[in-house]
Amino acid sequence: xxxxxxxxxxxxxxxxxxxxxxxxxxxxxxxxxxxxxxxxxxxxxxxxxxxxxxxxxxxxxxxxxxxxxxxxxxxxxxxxxxxxxxxxxxxx
Length: 92
Known about the structure:
This protein is of the alpha+beta class. About 50% of the residues lie in helices and about 15% in strands. The chain has a four-stranded mixed beta sheet with strand order 1-2-3-4.
């Protein structure tokens, strides 16, 4: 199973590993693999579909979903800027 490992401190603390699942939207197969993954994780991402989160409240589930979005952005920016030496060039 693929997973996202957040690089930011909030992600590391609250969801150190986010399972990344593959399955066609609106299928029993996707429902089954999401249910199985959520036995072990409060947050999963289904490719081409989005997040599934379980919290004690709707607000908590929303925070987990927001955390997944933020962690994904941090990873994307790191990957983009890692190839741009000018952003990491020290003037010293």
